[in-house]
Amino acid sequence: MKRSAASTVPLALVLIAVATTAAAADMTGASNYLVYVEPHPPGVDCQAYQLGILAAALGGEAQAKAAMLYNYRNVMSGFSARLTPPELEAVKKQPQVSRVLPSATLSLMSSKFDGVS
Question: Which residue range or ranges hold the Inhibitor I9 domain (predicted)?
Answer without folding.
Answer: 57-108
